[in-house]
Amino acid sequence: MLTQEIIIRRREKLPLSADNIKQFINGIVDGSVGEGQVAAFCMTACLNPLSREERVALTLAMAHSGITLDWSADDLGGPVLDKHSTGGVGDKVSLMLAPMIAACGGYVPMLSGRGLGHTGGTLDKMDSIPGYVSQPDLPTIKRVVKSCGAAIIGATKDLAPADRTMYAIRDVTGTVESLDLITASILSKKMAAGLSGLAMDVKFGSGAFMQDYGDARALADSIVGVANGGGLPCTALMTDMNQALGRTAGNAVEVREAIQFLRNENIDLRLYDVTIDLCAEMLVLGTLAKDLEDGRKKSAAVLANGMAAEYFARMVSALGGPANIIETYESDLKLAPLHHAVYAGTDGVVSAIDVRKLGYAVIELDGGRRLVSDKVDHSTGLVDIAGLGENVDTKNAPLCVILGTDQAKIAKAEQLVRDAFVIAPKGTAIEATPVLRERITA
């Protein structure tokens, strides 16, 4: 079938066969499908949603548009598992989760991305570790996963290359929001990684990519349905992003918090709950736990006894980082020299937070990107971020502390922080909302 006929069928809401979709995706990679045709297809998909069968076919075609990892000859002795988050401010779950799963007998080739917009990127966090190679070649990825149980790294150009091309075109054609294309983009890279199971962390709230719960819920249902339809066992957790996850937002500051978590120090309870529950989902998917409660117990055990910290240190060292970052992290992870506490204008209690503005504050400090080409300052960020229902005042209990290198940029970040927090009178009862809202299964 001619490429334009495929586009016309999509435009006219006529069904596409798996062969039609495979032909189109293969054409993106071999150059027989032009950028204009990709843009047209994306727009038709955005305006005329695909069926579940078409979503599965699109995802599988994209996953197989390049090389796919096959772990069967590596004799790993355990399942290959991963977790994906739709992104949120302060979300450093991957940094603890990957070594925790490895310590429980799983293998985690965690293909991660860089930050763009108000949410941070896992690769940017790992790049704050001196010497760490976040985008190694495939032989290195396989070697580190096999020897250390986990590798938090970026996808190579050979994995799901059609997605790379389609995403760049979606970004400039107003089709990023397509539920079908988001689903295929996320899952194609995960399927190309040769996984045995995938846990999704789908966030909603003011700091999430999809703020509306209904929209985020629809995405979770789509991902879980397509993943399982394509042969990848998958479940999803709906998690609240109406406050920062943990007490830090940035790069080096988040790695520091993650290491303290692995050291069983200064553990934020919301961060703990999300991490443990996602670990439990992965362990059940990989048949390393008999049920979710068993998975939670095993995850908590390897955290408490230090095994997870040991696996993290081994992974960092194997990918070029410091030999024992768990012990030397304070000297290894450099922080910006200027520390500025932001206090509320009145004593009271935090009643609401526009978390997106906290993410933008990090960008003002050069801790995030406006454009893909922007250089990130890994040393900046926010620490000691106040949570909902917590008391703040004008002198002793700040909204947060800003770490920066430039006073003018700190001033811009401070204004965003002030705008982000709503303060109610002291003594006001603020209803606590659970960080875990719903579990989605096939």
Explain how this protein is built.
A four-stranded mixed beta sheet has the order 1-4-5-13, with helices on both faces. The mean pLDDT is 94. It has helices spanning 3-11, 18-30, 35-47, 52-63, 93-103, 122-126, 138-148, 161-173, 179-192, 213-229, 252-262, 269-285, 292-304, 307-318, 325-332, 355-364, 407-420; strands spanning 81-85, 108-112, 150-154, 197-204, 234-240, 249-250, 338-342, 348-353, 381-383, 391-392, 400-404, 421-424, 436-440. The protein is of the alpha/beta class and 442 residues long. Helix content is 46%, strand content 14%. It is built from 17 helices and 13 strands. The chain has three domains: 3-63, Transferase, Pyrimidine Nucleoside Phosphorylase, Chain A, domain 3 (Up-down Bundle); 79-155 and 193-329, Nucleoside phosphorylase/phosphoribosyltransferase catalytic domain (Pyrimidine Nucleoside Phosphorylase, Chain A, domain 2), CATH 3.40.1030; 338-424, Pyrimidine nucleoside phosphorylase-like, C-terminal domain (Aldehyde Oxidoreductase, domain 3, Alpha-Beta Complex), CATH 3.90.1170.30.
